[in-house]
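Data deposition worksheet. Section B asks for the primary sequence of the deposited chain exactly as it was used as input, without tags or linkers unless they were present during the calculation. Section C holds the resulting structure in token form. Section D is free text for depositor observations; keep each observation to a single sentence. Incomplete worksheets are returned to the depositor.
Section A, Depositor: J.P.
Section B:
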Amino acid sequence: MNSRCMGKSKINIVFASDDHYAQHAAVAMASVLEHAKYPEQIEFFLLSDRISEMCSDKLRVTAANWKSKISIIPVNGESFTDLYVSAQLSRAAYMRLAVTEFLPESVDKIIYLDCDLLVRKDIAELWEFPMNGSAIAAVPDCGIMTSWKSRKQKHECIGLEESEQYFNSGVLVIDLSQWRAKGYSKQLLELVRENSYPHHDQDALNVFFHHRWTPLPLEWNVIPPVWFMFIKVLFSEWRSKAAAAQQNPAILHYAGGYKPWEYEIHKGFNDEYYAILKKTAFSDAKMPQFDARKKQRSIKRQMVRLKMGNIWGNLFGRK
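Section C:
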């Protein structure tokens, strides 16, 4: 190990994926390592829903390129088949709720990351963010909190009040010691089995940790409403913070229907994904990989949104 990182504790990062998302998990992992000051310090765990051995090998090779390592942990996906899924959500999304059942007891803290994102800063900064005694830290979801329709839905289905924040579950810092000691995984799984939440595990986490989570800065989970500076965000109390995050995302999260791998390279939208992909063992993948269910949806609308988002971000994100 590099002598500069001797004495530093490991940073544990967890993904959950099926075979379909293995390539994207590799890109997300590589983006973490590419921007880490000490990549050797980082250890990955991937909760695998039947990922093939070929893809598993490529994931291991990718991690090894930065002298890191990844443990691929088979998870019986059948245990999650009775949970509510819809749209493009796979049952792998629920695996984060049961994370304490699969990781070694020695792992007492993790960062959980969705696979459809790119890390653009040193993940050690997120790891060291104070959790203030909370079992979970997350980024407020500006898309939901600035939408009257979404807030009304959240009030009706999970009891979220007007003054309360709601977080996105794509980036989570988790104190596993608390989760194990208090049996949170078991309680969370019981909650999702009893309820068909519109936003699935994310709603369940917000219900369960109501008033018991620590907010992270917006830059650590920049979702489309912030990246494109939607009108609802632009005219909200979140404008300044959102604009600052838009200008310098630490994590760019392609949440929603427009994924970077579904289109040819478009500068500013998905060129970073393609650049990182070339540094993984999936570099020979046939691209783009469009979802036939989306009927060749044009990227033009997103590019216009991105252009406008950059204008508003530059205008209101100045310090």
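Section D:
Residues 300-316 form the longest helix (17 residues).
The chain has a mean pLDDT of 92.
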